[in-house]
Every structure is written in C-alpha cells, then in structure tokens.
Write a structure and sequence with these properties.
Helices cover about 25% and strands about 25% of the residues. It is an alpha/beta fold and about 230 residues long. It has a 6-stranded mixed beta sheet, covered by helices on one side. Strand 1 and strand 2 form a beta hairpin. This is Glyoxylase, beta-lactamase superfamily II. One of its GO terms (biological process) is glutathione metabolic process. Pfam families: Lactamase_B. InterPro entries: Metallo-B-lactamas, Mito_Persulfide_Diox, POD-like_MBL-fold, RibonucZ/Hydroxyglut_hydro.
Length: about 230
C-alpha cells in the first residue's frame, strides 16, 4: 500500500493538500483540504480503498476555505487543529509534542511553529514534514496578521525545523513557482529568506514586504474557524 504522501493542488490559492495512508490497514489522513475540491479528495480516498480517519489543519487559512467540516460529516473522520488557532468545533485541539495515531502503527508528530500565525503547526510523519505556511520551498509564509510574528517564525524554523535531519522532506502548504517538495538540508543552505540571515536581518526583510491583504481573508478566516462551514459557532 502507498506510504508516500499524495500531493494535490488547488490552482486558485496555490494550496497543497496531502493524503497519507497507513501501510498496515486502510486508514488515511488528509492535511489542509480545500472546500472546492472535496469531491476530488474523496474520490482519491475511495479509489485507493482507504478510510479517512483524521482531517488535519496546519492553521486557520486566510486565502481559501477548508473542507474539513464537510469531510468530517461525510466520513466520520476526526478534525484535528492547532489549539492556538481558535477552531472550537474540532475534536482534537493539538498541542506541541502530541502524536496523532492512525492505522496500527502510524503516528504523526505535532510541532508547534508559531510565526505565520500564532497557532501554526507542522506535522512530521515517516521523514516527511508538512509545513503549512511556516516554511515554503525557498521561502516562508507572511507574518503580518493573525498573531503572526517574524521573530517567532525565525525561531520556529531555525530552532525547531532546521534541527531535524537534513534528509527530512519538506512538503509546503503553498507553492507559487511550480516547486512541490524540498528537504531540510536544502532549505538550510538555500532558502532565500532564511539561509544565512540573522534574526534582525530576517525581521527587517519581512517588515519590508508590504504584501496586499488576502482577498478572501474576511470570508475564509471566520469560516475556517468553524471547519469551513458557513456559520461560525
């Protein structure tokens, strides 16, 4: 059975969604699903004969609406979210160091990596690191809203993610340049925003970005705090 991540893409928001499956039974986990693609994602699960047991969010997204609530309703999967992101309907409010168990022997390690948002988390499974917006291929997420902090992001990446084995594969939450996967070793040496920069240099760089506000932020964030469902609780 497939043990490598299945990577799926949403062209509108440049978001990656991932499906992980257990080799010892038919359990599966999905990370950062996008609402407009819930049928596509379920079709992948069904085509491979899998059973969706967990839906994971890396943070409360500002650029797209999640399908976590819909997938939970259709499959009975547990919604798992960072405890610091204010998503009360989820069954599992994750803390740093938690383990998400699925299949007979599989577990996903939870790493709290604040910076893009205050609650952002990354997930480590079988040498694969799912970084959300914390660490991108050659870059990183913005830090100017939702409790973001350039100082915190620098510490999260350099102190926690760059401490992982260099061979650890980096699977980002977004990509805007046609790049799908990297490694911790490559990012340590080549990341355009972080490699070789001191914290003050990184903070100055991030403060000068002057990025536009995400177009869907006012819709997406409230919806995502309710697992993508229309009415918040």
């Amino acid at each position: 059975m497939q043990v490598n991540p299945i990577q799926l893409f949403d062209a509108e928001s440049s978001t990656y969604t991932y499906i992980l499956s257990s080799p010892d039974n038919r359990d599966a986990v999905i990370i950062d699903p996008v609402d407009r693609h819930w049928e596509r994602d379920l079709a992948h699960v069904e085509r491979l004969g899998l059973t969706l047991t967990h839906v994971l969010e890396t943070h409360a997204h500002a650029d797209h609406v999640t399908s976590a609530g819909r997938l939970r309703a259709l499959t009975g999967a547990k919604a798992c979210v960072p405890s610091g992101c204010g998503i009360p309907p989820a069954e599992m409010q994750l803390e740093d160091g938690d383990l998400i168990e699925f299949g007979q022997h599989e577990h996903i390690a939870v790493l709290h990596t604040p910076g893009h948002t205050a609650g952002s988390m990354c997930y480590l499974w079988r040498g694969n690191l799912f970084t959300g917006d914390t660490l991108l291929v050659g870059g990183c997420g913005r830090t100017d809203f939702q409790g973001g902090s350039a100082e915190a992001l620098y510490d999260s990446v350099t102190g926690k993610l760059f401490a992982l084995d260099d061979a650890t594969r980096v699977w980002p939450g977004h990509d805007y340049k046609g790049q799908s996967v990297s490694s911790i070793g490559w990012e340590k040496r080549h990341n355009a925003r972080l490699a070789g920069r001191s914290k003050p240099e990184f903070v100055a760089l991030m403060s000068a970005l002057d990025l536009p506000r995400p177009k869907l932020m006012d819709v997406a964030v409230p919806a995502n705090r309710n697992l993508g469902l229309a009415h918040s609780v």
